[in-house]
Write a structure and sequence with these properties.
Blueprint: H1 29-32, H2 36-52, H3 56-68, H4 76-87, H5 92-104, H6 112-124, H7 128-140, H8 148-160, H9 164-176, H10 184-194, H11 202-213, H12 218-235
């Protein structure tokens, strides 16, 4: 089975922390000024309150607080608990964080099936990188049953969003007939789109497009180029 190269998903997640501003009355600073530890405790209390009320952004932040031990004792189990609460409410960042951590066994027991479950939740929300990862998983049978047809569907979703890695991968599938009916016109289309911007796949996309074109009739090349113009007209500014 020929696999398709999929670029790595970025694994660094930015965390935005809300700091409380404590005002002090000038006439009695000694009583009203809080020590750093008291400020940290108050901040954590406020975060927990908002998280318990169901605010998914705060739940996500609180999860990272437990991972890093910032204002609380480090606790990966508690971090995952908060991320799952956020992810189950549709928080995309929490879904991706859980997927990556289950994928790599970071703070949890490595579980490829669980990683795929969270990648899919993010992919269903339209996250292109998660869609590409799922395409690769279904191509290689990692955490799921191997299924090239499903892989092609996930690649297509990301490719239609303009992701050049997915466009290249979909070109490969059409060229080889992997998960789709072999179609040089479609292969040319997706290779050409994938070659339109700088990327690690750009050079190979150009080579593959030109190789496919050499096997096509002039009419087929003209049709493929028409599809490229049509796609760009509908999807690019």
């Amino acid at each position: 089975m020929t696999g398709c190269h999929v670029g790595p998903i970025a694994r660094t997640v930015a965390v935005f922390v809300v700091l409380s501003v404590i005002s002090c009355a000038p006439q009695d600073r000694s009583k009203q000024t809080l020590m750093p530890e008291e400020i940290a405790n108050q901040e954590i209390t406020e975060l927990r309150t908002r998280a318990e009320e169901g605010d998914t952004a705060t739940q996500y932040i609180l999860g990272w607080r437990y991972v890093n031990g910032r204002g609380v004792e480090k606790d990966d189990v508690e971090a995952v608990r908060w991320w799952k609460r956020a992810a189950n409410q549709g928080n995309l960042s929490a879904q991706l964080t859980l997927a990556v951590r289950y994928d790599n066994g970071e703070g949890v027991v490595q579980d490829q099936a669980e990683a795929v479950r969270w990648y899919q939740r993010a992919a269903e929300q339209g996250h292109a990188a998660a869609q590409i990862i799922l395409g690769g998983r279904y191509t290689n049978g990692r955490g799921v049953e191997e299924d090239d047809t499903v892989a092609a569907e996930w690649y297509r979703m990301a490719a239609e969003q303009g992701d050049i890695r997915a466009q290249y991968s979909l070109g490969v599938m059409y060229e080889t007939g992997q998960g789709v009916s072999q179609d040089n016109v479609q292969a040319y289309l997706w290779y050409d789109l994938g070659a339109s911007r700088p990327s690690v796949e750009q050079e190979q996309s150009i080579k593959n497009r030109d190789s496919v074109a050499s096997q096509m009739t002039p009419e087929e090349v003209a049709e493929a180029q028409r599809l490229v113009r049509e796609w760009r007209g509908a999807n690019e500014p």
